[in-house]
Each structure stands twice: as C-alpha cells, then as structure tokens.
Amino acid sequence: MLKNKYGYFDTERREFVITDPRTPRPWFNYMWNERYAGLISHTGGGFSYLDSPRDNRLTRMRYNTLPWDRPGRYVMVKDKESGEYWSLSWAPTLNINYDRYECRHGMGYTHIVTEYKGIRGEITYFVPRDETGEIWKVSLTNLAKYPQNIEIYAFTELLMGNALNDLINQPNDKHFTDIRFDRDTQSLVATRRYWVLNKKVSVVQPNIDWKYVLQFSSSLNVTGFDAGLDTFIGKWRSESNPLAVETGKMFNTEITAGDPVAALQSKEKLEPGKTLHFSVLMKVSEKGSVNLGEINAWKSEGFIDEKLSGLQQYWDDYFSVLQVETPDEKVNTMLNIWNQYQAAVTFDMARNSGYYHGGLLFGTGMRDQFQDILGMVMAEPERVRKRLLNALQFQFKDGSTLHNFFKLAGTGERTRHSDTPLWIPFGLIKYFSETGDTSIFEETVPYHDADAGTVYEHMVRAMDYAISETTERGLPRIMNGDWNDTLDHIGPKGNGETIWGAFFLGYILKEAISLFEFRNEPEQMKKYTAVYEKLKHSINELAWAGDWYVRAFRDNGQPVGTPGDDQGQIFLNAQTWSVISGMAPAERGDSALKSCLDKLETPYGMQICWPAYRRIDDTVGLISRCVPGKKENGAVFNHASAWFVLAALMNGQVEDAYRIYLKMLPVNSGADIDRYETEPYVFSEYVTSPEHPTEGQASHSWLTGSAVWMLYIAYGYLLGIRPIPGGLLIDPRIPADWNKVCVTRRFRGKTLQIMINNPDHVNMGVKSITVNGKTCDSRILNPEKFPGPVLDVDVRMG
Ligand code: GLC
Q1: CA-proximal residue: ligand 1, atom 6 (nearest)
Q2: CB 426 within 8 A of CB 466
C-alpha cells in the first residue's frame, strides 16, 4: 500500500485517506461541476463560487492568514450536558484530541469522520454534477451506552459577489446585503442588491443587481439561526469559539448590512447505538426564477443518494477512457486515478481557484487553457470543443491573443507574451488528433476586435502572427516573455529573441504540417515546411553554445544561457524542445539532453535552469529577482521537467526518461513529506531545488500544466499509445524490465484493449501488431477500419 505518515492511497475507492490531520499544509480537494465549484481542505476549509471565483464568490476565503484554509464549511456538535463542543471536520476546534479522525478525499467529494465524546460524526461534502449548489451529508452515531442531548450548528461565512471588492472595499461593500429566515423551508435566504462586475479594480461602483438568491438549509428542525457574522461569532472571538455555539443561544439575526454568515442550530437527542442522518444544503438560483420550495426536495435521502451516485457514475465514465496496468503500482495509481483527476481539475480551474492562486487574479490563461485539454479531451470531447471555441473569441484578427480572460467579465489582458497565440494550433491539433472531428475547423468564431473567421483561419492566423514576429535573423521575438513568464526583460526594445520559442514555433509548424498532410493541403504543407526549414537553419546557425542551445538573445544580441554565464548557464526548455521540435541534429540533441542530465538532474526531477540567479540581472527579468532554487529561478518546475521526460523518450533515452518520470511523481518527490509539504496525490507546480535551504519543499499544488503533460506523456509516449490525425499511433517506449503492459483506451467511439508484450526486454521498437487476431501492417490504428465496438490489440515489442 502507498502511504506516508499522514495517510495512504485507497486505490479501490479512488481516495486518499488522511489519518493524521496535522499535515504540513492543508491538503485539499475539489468538488465541482461546470458552473458551481469549491475547494475543500481536509479540515473542512475552503470556498465556493458560481462561474467565477473572482466575480461571483459565494463564500469567503481569508487571505494571508494561518492556518490558511479558513474559513470553511463547518458543522459543530455540542454536548448539552457538559457544554463541550467540537467540529466534525477538526478545524476550527483544533485543540480537541479526537478519538478518531479520518478524511477521505475522493473524486469530487470529501468525507471526514471524527469520533469524540462517544459520538461518531461523518460528513460528506459534495457538489452534484447537475445542480448549482452543494450538499453536506452528515450522520451522527451515538457510540455511548446512554442517550445524549446535543446541539448541532452548521455554518459558513458568506460573500456573494465580487471577491476582490470584498477584500479592498469591505466596509462599503457590506451595505447591500439582505438575509432573512424563511420558515416554510427552514432556510436562510440570502441575496445582494448590487454586484461589482468591473473589468478591473476601480472606484466606480456599478449600479447592477446580484442576479442570485442563495439558500442555506438543513434537513433538521431549525431551532435558531444567524445571518450576522459578528453577532454569531461574538466580540473578540473567532470561528473556533462562536458565542452562539458556546452559549447555545442563537440571536436569530436577519441582516441588511454587515458581514454575512449562514448559521443554523438544531437540537436533537441521540439514543445509544442510533444514527441521526441529516444534510446541510447550499443552493443558488437566479432571482427571477427562484422557487424557494425546491430546496425541500434536496432534503430527501433519495435525492442526495441519487446525486451521489450521479457523481460516482460521472467519474466511472471519466476514468473508463484510460486504464493501465504496468508493473509499477505508483505509476498505476497516478495514471488511473490521480493524474487523470488532476487533469480534470486543471481543465476547469485553470490557474485560478486554489489556495495558491487565490481566485482573484488570473482568470483563465489562454496558453494554459489550450494545454489543459489534454486529459479531458479523452472523456468529454464535446466540452473541450465548446471550450476551445469559447477561448478563440479572445484572439485578435491579427492572430495575437489576450493572455488571459475572465469568464463573466468577458475580457482579460493583452500582455504580449510571444508564445501565447501558438498554443491555439497546439490545442486544436491535439483535439483533432483525439477526436478526428474535422467539423471544428469549419466553425466560425468572432475575433476579439473584429469580424469573425473560421477556426481554421484562427489557427493559421495564430501561426502567421508568430512567424511575422521574428527578427531579421529569422528568430521569434521574445516580446514580454514566453512560456517562462519571468524572462520578461530580455527584449524590452523589441529585439530580444527566444530560442525556446523558436523551437516551440518549430514544433507547432511540424504538427500543423502533419495536419495539412492529413487534410491533403499540399500548398500549405509546402509553405510551412519552408518556414520550418528556414527556422531550423537559423537556430542551428545562431543558437548552439557548444554543448547546448542558448535560451535567448537580449536586445543587444548577447545570448542568455551559455557555458560562459555564471548564473542561468543552462536552461532546460531550450534543450528539451530542440529534440521535441525535431530541429536539433542528432548529435546536438544528444549533447543537449546529456548536458541537462549533467547539470540539471536533482532527486525530484529536472531543474528549470542552473545555476539559479543570485544577482539581479535586468537584461533577463523577474527570474533574477526570485530567490534561487524556487519557482522559475531554478526550481524543479514540473511542467518543464515533464518536457524532459518527453524529449528523452523521443530521443530514445527511455531509461533516463523513466527515471525522471518516477522522481517527479508526488509519491516519490514527496517521500520526505514534512519537507515536501503539499499533497502527495497531485503534482505541484514546483519542488524547491538543492539551490535553496528549503530543498524538497513543494508549492502551488493542483493547478499546474504538469498535470496534463505528465498524463499525456505517459499514455502517449511512454506507453506509446498516441492520438495523431490519422488515428492511434502505437510506439511504446518502456523500461526494459517491463514484461507486459495492459491498456484500455476509449478512442473515437471504440474501446481498445491493448496488450503490450515485451518478451525480449527492449525499450522500444514494435515487431508486430494484431487487431482482433489479424496482423496489422500499420503502426497507426484507425478504429473506424475495424468492425465491432471493442478491439483486441496485441503489440509485440522487439
Ligand atoms: C505558471 C503559469 C504558466 C507559465 C509558467 C511558467 O505556471 O501559469 O502559464 O507558463 O508559470 O512561467
């Protein structure tokens, strides 16, 4: 069993089980659907929102405090006799020594069990797939031999509206609230009379209505309530010891101003051995169409069970598109469960709603969005299609794009990062390779600044824009940065050039050429092949530094990332993408990757660059102001490290690739969990490298491009079952000591049961493929060409 001192993986139930709540940081999970979402920590902390965590937050997150998963969704139980009270999720009554604590973070739900004073509390938090609301399903069992009189308090701190405004203008923002208690439904009904939907921070308070009504309800008989936060909590107290809970007297506040809370009290008697089942509900409806009574239906056990099984069904379907059985348990656990799950989270949360990202600043990044489809596209191609079409509205007619956008505000920032537009063809081609859906290219989408164009035109314009933004020497201008946001001062005068960006452009051209070939468009092939060749020539003329490629050229033509540099000598991305793009001649590719292994390999994966910057260099940028060993300044930046795995696989260095892949798995990089700190079940953005005293510490868990890349590289390149325009390419590159791998993969409407046999213990090379017992000449399987819904594919390596 995979475990550490705080918990273990229950693979059967697809859960990570936390048995000691004193984890190094809050370890959290997500519960969400397309519109309603929330994060939930193992202590019941976390916030909820509808559509946008900045513009339509429902409950609060307290920023920059310790512990930083406050406040949350709390249910407290009070023993009437002794007056003692405790929370069913450990926090915020941290000082209690529970007899038992267990938290199970599962797929879209979190389940916490506590035992104290002879009462077992179980609480399951989840968001139904098809409702704008959340359910806390609770049961209390009296383990004692005597009856117990208890009081139950369920509460959460409300926000309702613009979360940024709540932070910067709270004393004014709190004058627009209406919360009252509705006896018929035993619910607090909360709404706001205004909504700040500014596109940016502004003193202008727009005069518009918050469109929603929020109901907070319990299936128990409600004996008291509070909507005023200060009243419920009391003076000089916090959520850990609310006055109302301590005294047992709710104030029944219905507020029109002030900080809101939704708090409900119930009083029950628990007979020995008996279990009390109830639920706490939070539901959001549009003002115009609200039917307050609907919440009563939510209170039935039938409804809740149906929603829970809907959730289970959703995830069963989601995972059924890809299941693997390799000889390595860690790989299986990550690939079959957590890596796929994290990919789904990044698809919906982007780099936005989490404890590390805060939900206030980022919205959806264009470059992130077009990468984050790599997991979801297998399970829900229609949703991905919609998402791609939506994101294309943020492209300008000249091919450039906004850098990020906000769902509700419909706008974002134009930052002039050189790589951002190129992720458009990237995402479209990956989508097409998975689905074979040619119709997407014919769809019409408006440009952000002008009339509309087909998706095909959008794609070509993005490439043409990138091609046009090259210098006289034929290299892409870096502009205000590239994938590496912190290389933002290399070319302020407009002449700086990016070598990673040149390889990335090369890769996109290569992908596009294969798409054009598939579409039988010889003119396009010819045109872009010529660009590719010219670019390849320029790079190899100008950017080879002896043992590796330089990372960039400054405005004055000085290179960044050469053997002569005492900081930022070698950058990972410029080496890996030289291979990924197919632009490095064989010896140069070998040498570039070897240099990475010599200089950048750490126990946790590959450092993004080395040595980290210790002196500020304003001709490079923000990277040099960041502490050495963290973030882009020399951390093991997992997104970039993943690309090493890809490059090494492509270059036939399978054992190197697999070694780094293994190091990067959070179960491995987080082996020293007290150092590592973040969740061992998902990738973090980075792990601190040996260049900083906190070596091994991870940060920014969950929302990172490494989730989809580690998944895509593992199924597409390591197991070698890779969607390309013509079908599924079979090209496994596995450790030589692996005998056999089984993969079940749903692809273009069929289920492929693929058995990879490796009797000769090679790393790569396919000797033969049979489909349903018949020899297949091609390595590319087009499922349409085979009869039946299930294909048995036998691959023999050698
Ligand atoms: C962050 C950003 C991503 C960027 C990366 C490297 O993860 O979200 O867009 O590419 O940092 O700077």
Answers
A1: 484
A2: no
Ligand 1: centre distance to CA 735 (Å): 31
pLDDT digits (tens, 9 = 90+) for 282-326: 999 999 999 999 999 999 999 999 999 999 999 999 999 999 999
Asked whether the beta carbons of 635 and 697 are under 8 A apart, the reply is: no
pLDDT in tens, 413-439: 999 999 999 999 999 999 999 999 999
pLDDT at 198: 81
Cβ-Cβ contacts under 8 Å for 724 (sequence gap 6 or more) = 433, 514, 780
Task: Grade residue 216 by pLDDT with cuts at 50, 70 and 90.
Answer: very high
DSSP at 222: P
> Cβ of 756: how many Cβ atoms within 10 Å?
25
DSSP per position, 335-390: IIIIHHHHHHHHHHHTTTSSTTTTTTS--EEHHHHHHTHHHHHHH-HHHHHHHHHH
CA angle (426, 315, 755) in 5-degree steps: 70
Sequence length of the chain is: 798
> Considering the chain, what percentage of its residues have pLDDT values greater than 70?
100
Q: Is residue 351 within 6 Å of ligand 1 at its C-beta?
A: yes
Ligand 1 atom closest to Cα of 700?
A: 7
CA distance 506 to 329: 37
Q: Where in 46-147 does DSSP place strands (E)?
A: 48-50, 57-59, 74-79, 85-87, 100-105, 109-116, 119-126, 133-142
Question: Does 365 contact ligand 1 (Cβ within 6 A)?
Answer: yes
Judged against a pLDDT cut of 80, whether residue 16 lies above it is answered with yes
Residue 204 confidence (pLDDT): 83
pLDDT digits 0-9 by tens, 632-659: 999 999 999 999 999 999 999 999 999 9
| Cα 91 → chain centroid | 25
685 close to ligand 1 (CB < 6 Angstrom): yes
The number of the ligand 1 atom at minimal distance from the alpha carbon of 640 is 6
The predicted model gives 769-781 an average pLDDT of 97
Could you read off the pLDDT of 662-679 as tens digits, one per residue? 999 999 999 999 999 999
Burial class, 785, CB count within 10 angstroms (exposed 0-12 / middle 13-18 / buried 19+): exposed
372 ligand 1 Cβ < 6 A: no
Nearest residue (CA) to ligand 1, atom 8: 351
Instruction: Give the whole-angstrom CA distance, residue 153 versus residue 131.
Output: 24
Residue from 356, 368, 417 to probe ligand 1 pocket by mutation (most atoms less than 8 Å from CB): 368
Contacts of 13 (CB under 8 A, 6+ apart): 104, 106
Probe ligand 1: pick from 346, 349, 351, 709, max atoms within 8 Å of CB?
Answer: 351
Question: Distance, CA 632 to ligand 1 centroid (Å)?
Answer: 9
Work out the average pLDDT over 204-224: 94
The CB of 485 under 6 Å from ligand 1? The reply is yes
- Report pLDDT for 206: 81
Q: Which atom of ligand 1 is nearest to the CA of 362?
A: 8
Is 632 touching ligand 1 by the criterion CB < 6 Å? yes
State the average pLDDT over residues 451-476: 98
What's the token pair of residue 629? 């060993």
Do the beta carbons of residue 330 and residue 665 sit within 8 Å?
yes
- Rounded to whole angstroms, the Cα distance separating 303 from 147 reads 30
Asked if residue 67 has pLDDT above 80, the reply is: yes
Residue 202 is predicted with a pLDDT of 81
pLDDT over 90, % of the chain: 97
pLDDT at 203 over 90: no
